[in-house]
TrEMBL record, chain A:
InterPro entries: APC8, TPR-like_helical_dom_sf, TPR_rpt. Keywords: Cell cycle, Cell division, Mitosis, Repeat, TPR repeat, Ubl conjugation pathway. GO terms for biological process: cell division. It comes from Brassica campestris (Field mustard). Gene3D superfamilies: Tetratricopeptide repeat domain (1.25.40.10). This is Cyclosome subunit 8. The lineage of its organism: Eukaryota, Viridiplantae, Streptophyta, Embryophyta, Tracheophyta. It comes from the Eukaryota. One of its GO terms (cellular component) is anaphase-promoting complex. Belongs to the APC8/CDC23 family.
Automatic annotation (TrEMBL), chain B:
The lineage of its organism: Eukaryota, Viridiplantae, Streptophyta, Embryophyta, Tracheophyta. GO terms for biological process: anaphase-promoting complex-dependent catabolic process; cell division; positive regulation of mitotic metaphase/anaphase transition; protein K11-linked ubiquitination. Residues 306-406 form the Anaphase-promoting complex subunit domain. This is Anaphase-promoting complex subunit 5 domain-containing protein. The keyword Cell cycle applies. It comes from Brassica campestris. GO terms for cellular component: anaphase-promoting complex. Keywords: Cell cycle, Cell division, Mitosis, Ubl conjugation pathway.
Amino acid sequence: MVSKESCRNEIRAAIRQLSDRCLYSAAKWAGEQLVGIEQDPSNFTPSNTRFQRGSSSIRRRFSTISTPQPSAGFSQPPATPLPQEEDEVIDGDLYLLAKSYFDCREYRRASHVLRDQMSNKSLFLRCYALYLAGEKRKEEEMIELEGPLGKSDAINRELVSLERELSALKRTGAIDSFGLYLYGVVLKEKGNETLARASLVESVNSYPWNWSAWSELQSLCTSIEILNSLNLNSHWMKEFFLGSAYQELRMHSESLAKYEYLQGIFSFSNYIQAQTAKAQYSLREFDQVEIMFEDLLRNDPYRVEDMDLYSNVLYAKEACAALSYLAHKVFLTDKYRPESCCIVGNYYSLKGQHEKAVMYFRRALKLNKKYLSAWTLMGHEYVEMKNTSAAVDAYRRAVDVNPCDYRAWYGLGQAYEMMGMPFYALHYFRKSIFFLPNDSRLWIAMAKCYQSEQLHMLEEAIKCYKRAVNCGDTEGIALNQLAKLHQKLGRNEEAAFYFEKDLERMDAEGLEGPNMFEALVFLATHLKTNKKFDEAEVYCTRLLDYSGPEKEKAKSLLRGIRMAQTDFPSMDMEHFPL
Amino acid sequence: MAGLTRTAGAFAVTPHKISVCVLLQIYAPSAQMSLPFPFSSVSQHNRLGLYLLSLTKACDGMYEMKLEELINQLREVGDDVDAWLTENLTNRFSYLSSPDDLLNFFTDMRGILGSLDSGAVQDDQIVLDPNSILGMFVRRCILAFNLLSFEGVCHLFSSIEAYCREAHSSFAQYDASNSNLESLTQYNQMDKTTKLHKNASGNVPFHLHTPEALFKVTEGLLVTRTEKSSTRKFAEATSVASASSSKVEDTRVDESLFLRTNLQIQGFLMEKADAIETHGSSFSSSSIERFLEQLQNLAPELHRVHFLRYLNKLHSDDYFAALDNLLRYFDYSAGTEGFDLVPPSTGCSMHGRYEIGLLCLGMMHFRFGHPNLALEVLTEAVRVSQQLSNDTCLAYTLAAMSNLLSEMGIASTTSVLGASYSSVTSTASSLSVQQRVYILLKESLRRADTLKLKRLVASNHLAMAKFELMNVQRPLLSFGPKASMRHKTCPISVCKEIRLGAHLISDFSSESSKMTIDGSLSSVWLKDLQKPWSQPVYSRESSYRNNSTFFKFFVHLVSIPGSVSQIIGASYLLRATSWELYGSAPMARMNTLVYATLFGDSSSSSDAELAYLKLIQHLALHKGYKDAFAALTIAEEKFLTVSKSKIMLLKLQLVHEHALHRSNFVKSTSGNLKLAQRMCNELGGLASTTMGVDMELKVEASLREARTLLAAKQYSQAANTAHSLFCTCHKFNLQIEKASVLLLLAEIHKKSGNAVMGLPYALASISFCQSFNLDLLKASATLTLAELWLGLGSNHSKRALGLLHGAFPMILGHGGLELRARAYIFEANCYLSDPSFSVSTDSDTVLDSLRQASDELQALEYHELSAEALYLMAMVYDKLGWLEEREEAAALFKKHITALENPQDVEPNIA
């Protein structure tokens, strides 16, 4: 295990280097992790620790699993020592000026100041400033050039020259790891993914503390094969990378394991907590996620990142008040973040005001066209508003942003089912199940499609319901439907089997209702016809506890059973007359 | 962000449109004069107008022209005012030095439009009618400009700079000596010098500047459409490439790539779609993919791109990509895109038209060989179109469904058309598949008729003809004893349906979209500009070029939509098929030839392939294998790239036949038989494994297997195969195939020496042939029947001869070489075995037949039968005492026998 102290030292140096190169978000991330390391209480005053964490009791509750302590874990690899700061004196003045221009977001000025500087650091800052200038212009042009057909060819005009320069530098070897990172980003923008990946891998291997490089690399790992093929030096930063990459590849338990391990060092990292919450959300552990987010907000009340996820949880739990509170809070913090808009949209959706919800989702999309969950949620709103073609359009856009979004596939299926095209819808359901094969809801939706009167493919429906039961159907639809379908198909034995199971489930959960009556009536009748009178009587007596027509039915059944029991010998008499 | 904003008529001001506006200003200056300044004649003036009109309508590409191309074309149009035109044009651009000039320019543009009420127009004033196409164009330009934000104007301004600079630089490239040209005015100077140069060198026009144009002139008009488009594509690609390389120079993106108007793009895409369908997978799918990608980048909201991608993938047999793109297209567009072309039908609601998506999906499944899926989807399509009362879609769906049912072997015993069958056919749930097909066709025809869907009507008629050809019509519901039953197909109604189908040619125009025809005419007009115009097209060209020039030009002018000519072509193919079945070889051949000559190029490649296939089969039957193989190599070159090529199938068939004919009947292990067996297996391997798919192929394969077994003298196995084949045919209702299987069974029994067993099969085959009017097959069955009778003993020879003579006219008139030879030999056999026949008195009767037979067998290399004929000949000569002839025949006999015993160089033609 890496010692906390060495981590701390590494990060401290890295933050300085990163912010010196104006890689602010990487520096921010590193800073968060730095504070996330548990401080040595003996070295610090109590006020210092209090600042760090006030109420970690709840967190402890959820991190009880002892983190694995690999003895042969990664030690600080000698290959990646902290790079020494170089030639600060030589280009110091101009560099300082450029950096302040950069900090004022005057990128072109910054790069101009550094035009003749040859040191690695100024070279990087010059290129980076140029790149950002191009990006800024690109964003503007995207709005300006937006034609009626959505022409989207606004590109960063600096890419070509940057690529030329960086590739020349790379050929001569006069490029440091930050330059490699920028080169990777440029290549990625230009669509050359393989080279971009190679360049980024080289960058993170020589300088692992640049989280931006890792996240660029992660966005290029679209499949587990690609991920496994990367040749990465081992370093604790790699674990962070793997955790987030696994999460993107929907390998939630693997990613959870990574984060649990990391929590051994960074036990107070908000980042890790949020990521864990994300993974838990995907595993549908809503209660746990809610507590984690509450905790997170308490420590970091002005956080907006990931809060849309929290709002989804609150939405699922139908916690109107909490949701409105959250919405209010993030709106005060930063109104023009897609996450904030999304949270408000969720709130209105929960309140049933779908037009307003759509408006906020649209605003979120204006801010970020590729904001996946807003597309999907907007699709849901349109479905609620019965505007199916708009819903289909929105879902399709979500799917085209990320083809692995099972919610959007599911939404597409649902929309088509609403339009009375169950067979067409099946394809979409199949797609969504492909990405999330262990979710009973998807299986049930598909089964319902097969069961629809247009298709009436009951055998297939039964198969789907069985899968749903195997996936642990929480809502108990599948068992009931299976029983009914078998009953419909005249397979009474199977029907009885599933009714019994369903009854067990309802008993265990303490539920009652028409399904219960139905199961009881069927079982009683079925057992009676099979001459298992005792068992039939048990079910009948259970029915007697309830009022209503079922009670009458039970009474008549009981009467029948008595009759049959008493008639039994007499029937014998008839068959065998003396 | 569609779904949020859907603006249909995308129209943006671009440098090219400004060029057109400038030209329009020249064409219709607001000044008052009958003929504006530079023009010397009215026709010259009109020519410019015509040119401008074409520019706004042509749909032969997706990008707008570059200034350089425009100037080149202007030269062709302008005759002697071209210099003035180009100078004016470029000057106008050089005056645009600030965004404000643009504003003024568009304010001026307003002046050339007449007032809307058009009351006060003086006689000699040229004004643009605001409602004319050009007037609308100007109005749209002005409107679009007025809608621009200041940033938009700035972008327009900088792209105009790029537009001019590019033209400038590309001209600078041509003339290295003038490489220091800097301004556009100087460029004009150069222009003039080149013009002088042109005048000096007489006839050599400006093609020096455009190698592509030069290419077209030298290659003349023989260049086919595909080649043209591919060169165009190539040119585009190179232009893109050069643009990107220049981008490296000054790190600028190429701004001059603007899309044409939405209307033109849609027209272009339609043409491309036609091309994909016509040429199938021989069309390079990756090149299409490339331009679709570019297009999608430039216009992400143009969803038809997805549809084209679907078509492309469909034709290159990529199931998953095709499915994905189809669904994506309908998800995005709700089936309503292109609504600015087609007025929204009455049934179009806010729900979109997803039923069309279902229809397409069904047809896709059909094409990929998933009949059950296809049927489910189409059923859903019927239901949804009924719900949304989209009658057009319903008619098409019903037609597709009937097509599916008739093409795919649906076993009569299975109930694929399960409980969920739609109400249209619910009355028919107890009916056989054939009857359902009939009902569906009738329904579709009726709807298409009322909706005036001419093409659907035509293809339904053809489908009906096919149905009539293959099926005996029975009254639908009354099967009682009183219902009069015709047990025959009705060739007259087949003929009638085919004719009704071909009626289309007279009045297709009412339905087909006018826009595409206009657009393609305009593009043709523009293309023709590339040819020297100054000389009259016909007189001069035809002097040293062949007549096809005229023909080509004529074709352009008529401009029948591809789909129409495809249907008419299909009707000829169907005629050929029906004649083939009815047994008239010359008629079949003639119709196929008509198809191949008239429609071979314009229709789909799979149809053209079918025509070639028929012709080659005809050759093999009537001229022998040598010719057939020669023709096959030609066809192979032509259709090599077509997916699911039938040529491969044909090759296997031919090799199989050939091997069977050359095989040794004594030694069943001979190489030829093995080869035949291999061909059989390969043939069977071509078919899909799915039940009910590729039935024709499967039947063919097992038929051939039985024949191979028969040739190997494994009679019982052959009979078994034939029996199971008969069962399959029965199960899948393949009536015509049943007749030939029965005949094969009779043959098997005949060869195995069990003539009594063979008789009922032969008779059954004949009765099948009668009810389906298969005259040639019937003649062949009659021959077998006669052979069987003779096999019962020589006392039946009279009866056999009688039967043979009854079938003789048909056999000799239409039969292939083998059949005729067999008939001749059999006739001789009959005479010889007739005890009352004496060779010495009537030798000519026998000898004539035998000579005929051996002549015809020569081409077939059918050694066994030849040997038999020669043997008989030698015997007859021997009887007659003509020793010399006898020896000759005997020697030939020996040759054939040795050839049979030593099958050397078995497969010269097999790869």
